[in-house]
Amino acid sequence: MHFLSKKEIPLKEILPQGYVDIHSHLLPNIDDGVKTVYQSAYIIEQFKKLGVKKIITTPHVMQDVWPNTSTIIRSKHTEMNHILNALDIKVSLEVSAEYMLDDLFYQKVKEKDIIPLHDTYILVEMSTFNPPINLNEILFEIKLAGFTPILAHPERYTFYQDHINKFIDLKESGFLFQLNLLSVSGYYGEKVKNTAIKLLSENLLDFAGSDVHNYQQFEILEKGFLSRYADQISSLMKKNNVFA
Ligand SMILES: [Fe+2]
C-alpha cells in the first residue's frame, strides 16, 4: 500500500471535461510570463492536448512593475488570437487580468477600468509578504463596483499560512479563493504545499488555476499530483465550470 500512496496521477487523467483555466501569463512580453509569440502558442497547444477547452489568461497589472493598461492587454489578446487561428490551434483564448491590490488598482476599480473574469469576477493578488493596509477599503470599492473578488493563490501569502482563521475571515468578508495547482505539486516549497492541502481539506477553496508563466511550469503541472489528493483536486477543477 505504501508505494500506492506515493503514486502520481498525471493531470490529464483527472482533468474534468470542459475544464476552463482561469489564471495564467500567456500573452507574450507583457509581464513575467511568456516572452515570445512562439512560447505562447506552444504552451497553449500543450494545454489543448491535455483537453483544456478554454483558457482565460490573466496578465499582471501592477503599478510598480507592470502597469499594463486595459488597451494594451486587449490588443495583445487580439494579436494572439490571430496567431492561434493562423496555426489552427483550436482553443478558446479569453483575457482578463491579475490585479495587484495597490493604488493603481484602487483607482482603476473606482473608474471601472477593469477587465473582468467572466462578467463580474475579478482576479486579485497581494504582495506575498504583507497585505495592503487599506484592504477593507479596497474590498468596499470592489463590491460597490459590482464585482466579486477572487483571491489568487491564498496558500502563497506567508502572513496567512499559520493562521487558518485569517482565511476564514477573508472568505466571510467576500473573497473567493483560487488555488494554484502548482502549489500542490510542491513547486513553491513545502510550506505553500502544506497550506494548500490544509485549505483543500477545510473546503475553503472555490476555484483552481494553473498560473503557468513558462514551459518549465507547464511540465511540472502536467506530471500531476499524488493520488491521495487527486479526487479533491479534480472536484475543485470542476467548479471552474462556471466560467465555461
Ligand atoms: Fe499569476
Description of the structure:
It is a single chain. The protein is an alpha/beta fold and 244 residues long. The chain has one domain (19-243): TIM Barrel, CATH 3.20.20. It is built from eleven helices and eleven strands. It has helices spanning 2-5, 11-14, 37-50, 70-87, 103-111, 135-144, 164-173, 181-185, 190-201, 215-223, 227-238, and strands at residues 8-9, 20-21, 54-57, 60-61, 92-95, 98-100, 121-125, 148-152, 176-180, 207-209, 225-226. It has a six-stranded parallel beta sheet with strand order 4-6-7-8-9-10. It has a three-stranded parallel beta sheet with strand order 2-3-5. α7 (164-173) links the parallel β8 (148-152) and β9 (176-180). The longest helix is centred in the first third of the chain and has 18 residues, at 70-87. The protein is globular and about 45 Å long. The model has no long low-confidence stretch (mean pLDDT 96). Fe (ii) ion binds next to loops.
What composes the largest sheet?
Answer: 6 strands, parallel
Cα shape: globular
Strand content: 15-25%
Which strand order do you get reading across the main beta sheet? 4-6-7-8-9-10
Structural class: alpha/beta
Q: Measured on Cα atoms, how large is the radius of gyration?
A: 17 Å
Parts with pLDDT < 50 across at least 5 consecutive residues:
none
N-C termini distance: 38 Å
Count of helical regions: 11
Bound molecules: fe (ii) ion
CATH topology annotation: TIM Barrel
CATH class membership: Alpha Beta
Overall domain count: 1
Number of strands: 11
CATH architectural category:
Alpha-Beta Barrel
H/E series, N to C? HEHEHEEHEEHEHEHEHHEHEH
